[in-house]
Amino acid sequence: MAKPFYYGGQAVIEGVMMRGEDEVAICVRSPNGKLNLKKQPLPSIYKGRLRKTPLVRGIIVLLESLVLGTQALFHSAQIAATEEEEEENAISPALLWGTVAISVAFAMALFFILPLLVTRYFIDPYISSSLASNVVEGFIRMGLFIAYLKLIGLIPDIKRVFAYHGAEHKVVNAYEAGVPLEVAAIKKHSTANPRCGTSFIFIVLVVAIFAFALLGRPPLWLGILSRIILIPVIASVSYEMMKFGARHAENPIARIFLAPGMALQTMTTREPDESQMEAALYALNEVIKTDSPAEKES
Length: 298
Hints:
The chain starts with 7 loop residues before the first strand and ends with a helix. Strands 1-2-3-4 form a four-stranded antiparallel beta sheet. The protein has helices spanning 56-80, 93-123, 130-152, 156-177, 183-186, 197-213, 220-229, 231-247, 252-264, 274-291, 293-297; strands spanning 8-12, 15-19, 23-29, 35-41. The chain has one domain (8-289). Strand 1 (8-12) and strand 2 form a beta hairpin. The mean pLDDT is 91. The chain is an alpha+beta fold. It has eleven helices and four strands, in the order E-E-E-E-H-H-H-H-H-H-H-H-H-H-H.
């Protein structure tokens, strides 16, 4: 018996991207109020054997989120900024990969390199334990992440993106609960989801403490290098942990494990209005329709 496919996606500017088994659907509300839908097939790397291979799939999912997420954000920004319904100009590979590279570099510098530097220069002179040093660094990393979420959450446009994030979770939760996919039925469902990227990042931050603690307190240059090189490994392990926890979300122990990440989602989601749930629902219905046997045979 085939394993069930778990739908998911991300919020974009004035809309939602949903990922299906074979396609991605991006639904954006244009300034004239009309829903604009774009569908594109998934490249084979995002749905092939590697995407299902334990540990390796974590890296594929991370790459998928960065590339497809950036494409979706560019598309939504263009649609949300114009009244025209014409297809936007294609995004050049250089611009796409340049944006991804800058985003990754910024995240590594802010959440991995900066905590290390702060710890080494301001904390380590007062403590002798390498374990304590790594734990303090980990808490600084978490503090920076929470502060970052808090600050960007003050931006009005980001608040709307967070509301679409809540809408995405609501429709996926409703679908998995087997309720009718209608706005009225979706409203009562939670804006939190155990497979959310916010929960994933939280697990990454926790796993990083243990991973770096194994290295002790190496020279600064080696500490910086290890923070960069080990990120894919940490992400892979973290993805497997999140996937296992989400699959057993009804288990009391799994619920305790998932609780911090679920709580953190209150910072990256907002209660959506009906128009936002409508956009998320439209995107989900499109990928479900594409994945249906009748659609594939036609």
